[in-house]
């Protein structure tokens, strides 16, 4: 009786063996899957660092004031770097630190070409810095740097002092909006835009005359009125044009 009870039913033994074998196969499949993932990731990492995915060429588009070398120096990307390691947003941010750059974008291609497209700022006026040196300023008040040989004449803004290159001039919005809105014909007559101590604006004309713009408000209307006045009024002996109210401009002349 005891020998018979000690014997294991063959069906139970087979079932136990099947369970053990299944666990072993699951463990082996799991190990194989992990090894495949590791191999795939390692292969992808090695492939991304291979010459097949290097930066083969870098092109710069949109420059006129700056050179492509200026942009490339700021971008700090070299031919031969892994393309997948290039952070497009970070490269664009570095390029946008250049004073003359308004915006930059970076495009990567699977052919190995990196394209940097920039939009340059436009100088609308000159100011003087703390040392008295003339500097160019764009419409947003950004100090761009000293005028160069390629720069045409720019209207001078008086009454404000520019800071270092790359900074913004405080309190310049009205005067620079005026410089931007002037039509070519009127611009040729304007010698300077003057920011008075109380914040009001004046235009000094050549060869003579002052335009009172008053507060830096309603500037599009005031300058549109100025264009009409200067196109219709005899400007000989012109003393002042008052445009504080652009709907009723007042012209005064120098007594003879």
Write the SSE topology:
Layout (H helix, E strand, L loop, with lengths): L1 H5 L3 H39 L8 E5 L6 H8 L12 H8 L5 E8 L4 E8 L2 E7 L4 E5 L4 E3 L9 E8 L10 H9 L2 H4 L2 E6 L5 E5 L4 E5 L4 H14 L5 E5 L7 E4 L3
Parallel strand pairs: 1-3, 4-7, 7-8, 10-11
Antiparallel strand pairs: 2-3, 4-5, 5-6, 8-9, 9-10, 11-12
Give a quick set of tags describing it.
single chain, 256 residues, alpha/beta, Ubiquitin-like (UB roll), Rossmann fold, nine-stranded mixed β-sheet, three-stranded mixed β-sheet, 7 helices, 12 strands, 34% helix, 27% strand, elongated
What does this structure look like?
The chain is an alpha/beta fold. It folds into 3 domains: 45 residues; 70 residues, membrane protein fhac (Ubiquitin-like (UB roll), Roll), CATH 3.10.20.310; 131 residues, Rossmann fold (3-Layer(aba) Sandwich), CATH 3.40.50. 34% of the residues lie in helices and 27% in strands. The chain is built from 7 helices and 12 strands. The strands form 2 sheets. A 9-stranded mixed β-sheet has the order 6-5-4-7-8-9-10-11-12, with helices on one face. A hairpin with a 4-residue loop joins strand 2 and strand 3. Helix 3 crosses helix 4. The longest helix has 39 residues. About 2% of the residues have low confidence. InterPro entries: FtsQ (IPR026579), POTRA (IPR034746), POTRA_FtsQ_type (IPR013685). It is found in: Membrane. Keywords: Cell cycle, Cell division, Cell membrane, Membrane, Transmembrane, Transmembrane helix.
